Fold this protein.
Amino acid sequence: PVRTRFAPSPTGYLHIGGVRTALFNWLYARHHGGQFVLRIDDTDQERNVEAALAPILAGFRWLGLDWDEGAEIGGPHAPYYQSARQDRYREVVRELVERGQAYHDFATAEELQSERQEAEKEGRRFVYSRRFLAETDTDRQRFEAAGRRGVVRLKLPREGRCRLDDRIRGVVEVDWVGEQDHVVQRADGSCLYNLATVVDDHDMEISHVIRAEEHLSNTPRQLFVYDALGWERPEFAHLPFVAEPGSKNKLSKRKLERYLKNPDFGALYERGSRIAERLGLAMTPESFNPVVVDFYRETGFLPEAVVNYLLLLGWALDDRTENFSRDEMIGHFTLERVNRAPASFDAKRLVAFQSRYMQALSVERRTAMALGFLERSGLVPTPASPSARERALRVVEAAGDRIEIGGDVIDYDDFFVEDGALKRDPTAVERWLIKPVGAIVRLRSLRERLAQIDPFDAASLEREFVAFAEAEGVKIGAVVQAVRVAVTGKAIGFGLYESLVILGRERTLRRVDDALAAVAA
RNA sequence: GUCCCUAUCGUCUAGCCUGGUCUAGGACACCACCCUUUCAAGGUGGCGACACGGGUUCGAAUCCCGUUAGGGACGCCA
């Protein structure tokens, strides 16, 4: 039976690279009708695990990556928190020592350091002398009497090669000498990752360890533990990591400043920030940026689009298929088609997927999304009144594919604010109302015509505008843009006739009057 | 420094295992033009890659060796 797992650390946010790894694990399990386990790696955690875990679990749920066992839901191999499994790890460490596969060591950090430096100076590979290895209880007591504190180290082979048949990399071999006698238990008795992960994977009957490439070099010491205990090794598959925008470096939250300088990444960040600001979200760049899943959730991305993008970051079915439904991804996903080279994060491509998925949605669905943002930004009452809903529907319909992410609806705030509260872009006013000769006079006479038009619909408006521009001897664009700026405050937007119809005659006239008054002043 | 991994358009990739159908396909991005009422969208077209050097072979993006470049790991972090 296929069992995969993902083991996040409770860090307070869900990293996009981690999600890609989790997705591949999830897909592999689902493809084989197996189970996906969500285990929590909180061995090194001192702060509030629950609070730091919540956004991560929320992220998984939002993306639709459900887990069969693990955090919050438990399961037959509980507990799924490493912090609660220390006794079990210690038990395994004892067994390792008994089997002669690990030993108590009393070297100090300084002594180790100097051995290391010496090796480096002589240009040879560092191999610990095992000078402070305690063979017997008497040895231990002697060291302890001398005030030393002991750790437990793996007693790794110093000859031969370690062979790993990785499902993605193929056969990887390394010399055992190159490996260190890694510490598996600290002086305070707590156990370390390299041991814990093996014990957990074994106890939880994980059949396939699918993880990022950065773990490839820890694998030999983990294989050693499996073998030393006589445990069956799981299959390993090391995924290429997700690289930062425009380079092959591993994506990292610490280098955010740099990513923001990448035009595409920076633009996405700006766009999201504008939305967050209007929603009144108190966001810091550390917790709210395009490397964090919450960013997409908060700004109105569709989880399906994010997942589809992530799927194709290191995996492809063939030379043309780009869109995958959840069932299709599950049906097609195999490890064999995972790429070996790192793939860099491309914000533009992610938005392209989002845009595509968004346009495939009905107007009603898109309106429902938009409404959430309108409510939260206070542009419509919460819950939205029927008239507000109606207006939102018409705006979303008219905006069409201009609304790529849910939060984009805020760009059309001018349809929801009070007429008197409408702000006009000064540059647009200058360009279309003040600068063109006769613009004001034309707007004034057009205003009278707008008052007369009957019915006040798009077709009639178009006829009127065309006739008016012709009579005045100006381009239709000049007239349209002048009215657009007067009524919406912006020089850009969707069709003007639809815009005026959505606002209605009364409000259109009022806004034209306001604009005329403002320009005259 | 040592060990390991990787290498096809700017980006994501198909092709590589099982050499010929590859004057290397698709998508995103970009550029131009068309459409047009601004902004999008749409239509048409364009730019654009097998890292390099040897070998094997009638034939190499594909197989082998080397070089170079990039990356990762070398913790009482995970």
User: Anything to note?
Assistant: The first helix of chain A runs from residue 16 to 31. Chain A has a mean pLDDT of 93.
